[in-house]
Amino acid sequence: MVSRVDAPKGAPAIGRLRAEGKFLVAGDHKFYVKGVTYGTFRPDENGCQFPAPESVNRDFHAMAAHGINAVRTYTVPPSWLLDTAQQHGLYVMVGLPWEQHIAFLDTPSQASGIESRVRAAVHECASHPAVLAYVIGNEIPASIVRWHGARRIEKFLRRLYTAVKSEAPDTLVTYVNFPTTEYLRLPFLDFCCFNVYLERREKLEAYLAQLQNVAGDRPLVMAEVGLDSLRNGEIGQAEALDWQVRTAFEAGCAGIFVFAWTDEWYRGGYEIEDWDFGLTRRNRQPKPALTSVRSAYAEVPFTAEVAWPRISVVVCTFNGSRTIAGTLGGLGKLDYPDYEVIVVDDGSTDRTAEIAAAYPVRLVRTRNQGLSAARNEGMRAATGSIVAYIDDDAWPDPHWLQYLAWTFLTTTYAGVGGPNIPPPGDGPIAECVAHAPGGPVHVLISAQEAEHIPGCNCAFRKECLETVGGFDPVFRSAGDDVDLCWRLIEHGWKIGFQPAAMVWHHRRNSLRAYWKQQKGYGKAEALLERKWPSKYNAAGHATWMGRLYGKGVTQALSRWRIYQGTWGSAPFQRLYEPVPGTLASLPLMPEWYLVILALLVLVCHQGLWPELRFAAIPLAIAILVPMLYVVKTAVHAFDGLGRRYWPLAMALHVFQPAARLWGRIDYGLTPWRSRGLHGWTHPLPQVFRLWSEKWHFSEEWLGALEQALAAQSAVATRGGEFDRWDLQIRGGLLGGVRTRLAVEEHGAGRQLLRWRAWPVFSPVALGITLMFGALAGEAALRHAWTTSTLLGWFASVTAAWALQGCGRAKAAYRRAIGKIGASRI
After folding, report:
1. What is the distance between the alpha carbons of residues 585 and 588, in angstroms, rounded to a whole number?
2. What share of the chain is helix, strand, coil (3-state, %, to 5)?
3. Which of the two ends of the chain, N or C, has the fewest CB atoms closer than 10 A to its terminal CB?
4. Cα distance between residue 451 and residue 464, in whole Å
5. How far apart are alpha carbons 370 and 477 in whole angstroms?
6. What is the tens place of the pLDDT at every residue in 479-528?
7. How far apart, in whole angstroms, are the C-alpha atoms of residue 557 and residue 801?
8. Ordered DSSP codes for 54-89
9. DSSP per-residue letters across 254-279
10. Cα distances (Å, whole numbers) of residue 787 to 693, 792, 799
11. φ, ψ dihedrals at 163, nearest 5°
């Protein structure tokens, strides 16, 4: 039997749990699940699949005494077991078993029978307060999912979820997945659960980061982790469980269930005697693993031995009196031993300073200089080695700083960010805005490394901030975070993402405020493009290295692909969405509205030539494609948003690009812009020969050409791994120049460089020129001279624009060639 350890006096009162952001909450307090699995056991003569009540009582008493607060069962427990759990302050995650190991969807009556039994099982528990959650399935085999298809399985699990919610609307519902079917998309679940067995710490850390991206803004719970002591020894089991539990919580998991409480295990009609995963032996004698788990559970989420660095939290505000009290109140509840709060009042004219002065903060008041200048004031005033930033309309999770600091302590990242989640209860418009594009999303290069972290939730090493000069004051209201991240990466540092370092962040609560915000973001994009032209394509769209994550990202029509391995045998099967190509991305760009406008102009001029009415066909397609994107986004990403609000959220997906386009054009980010190009030369193909008395690698010559082009603000992009060209110099939206280098070796370090340059026209330029040229010819044949002249003029202007771009790019190329340190011959 387990050695006698008295349970804590006054076991915690059981109350209904709810999911809030990345964690579970009981009442007003965060609840970390510190659980064990229980069963399955040999049924008794009455069919009960649990030990006798007195045995369960002893087990639950021992669990509570060792810091365990939750139990996972694989079958529906009787009411007396739930009562016993409640008496010991334990929650129970109830498994709802059904025949998931067979092709259960091949017969409609079988699927209906499963749903009926699930309803009956939930009804049997009668919304008992000890129920943590209902599990509507556990590890549907990959071959069964492959047989039915992932979409059918997802729909059936949604059906079971709805059935459970109809019986117990206030109780959490989840499904326990595993790596072999990780690709299942189940956004309707209240929280995500996975069974994961990995025996190397670095692999578990990496995979948990991947699962956090799968979970998104929801809690992630490890439903099973463990190690067999029969094969690995009891000491090996104890050591492994110690780091497995600690790693899970350090990675931001909301909880974990260790498999299992006891070695006693009955499955498939047999006692399982060749596996010993229990924390106790079959006779309930404790193993060393029980002590390890108890120790790890006592130090959630981090060990008490951490030497936490001092952190300065900076809140920059301008007329933020409406929300800053909530921000400062939340900062006052942080669970962190060494931090300060600095409020930078950027020339507010309302009661912001008065409100801030009522809190234990350092108040820095300045004249209005903009957001970046205010952030720099906070950086200069900071006394911590880490400077964290949060907006004045956000508030942090109590462990926000711990998760940020832990990531800094265990990595070399220059900056770390986390998710910003819209709080519930802000109203329907704010909820729709939260599901609309243009919000503060993060861009991830990998599961743990970011290209961009939003300024509303970010932290940086102070020395790194100072090295790159802090934030650029040119960005007065937005874009400062993007610019800083790019400069840190350019300096050779990396930026991390910690999914548990979350803040609650209000979204705009009126359509007018949302429109104004998106116009402002358009201005910020224009400023960013002037500073980072190579980060933007010819149309003016940012080209990220990573992928955008978060609510509101409009989804293209590209198909998701499932990596299953040969014959579906891969142990880790994931969902991949190919990065949309140029054509697929066009309808997502604000500039697509200019295409719609041009086609609309043609249709409106059909009075000059009736055949122009056929332009209504491409016009309809141009309008329909973005609508299809929005519909796909609604189907896959609007879970949690009431159906009656879908039309408004979908409308925001349509109107947001228009607001961005307005802001971009208003500040010079237009498709017809010309950055750093002057002069013109013929764009015909040409070979330049240069002689060098000093030997260099070809990569060095190309790098020198890049630098010479950048010095005159010309934009050059590198060829890919499958391209026969080395650099492309952008001449505008419709044309440019490509170049290729060949190096001849002539001994004694002497080299002859052959540079070939040739014009390149965009498919858009060729398509528009040919289409309008053909239409002009057709109009002339029908003696519609006015229309023919207008269409011909449009085709000629397009061709001339493309030629001008090629010629300007060629001129910049010729100037750069003359400055790379070789003699022209």
Report:
1. 5
2. 40, 20, 40
3. C
4. 16
5. 6
6. 999 999 999 999 999 999 999 999 999 999 999 999 999 999 999 999 99
7. 31
8. HHHHHHHHHHHHTT--EEEESSPPPHHHHHHHHHTT
9. SEEEES-SBS--EETTEE--S----S
10. 60, 8, 18
11. -65, -45
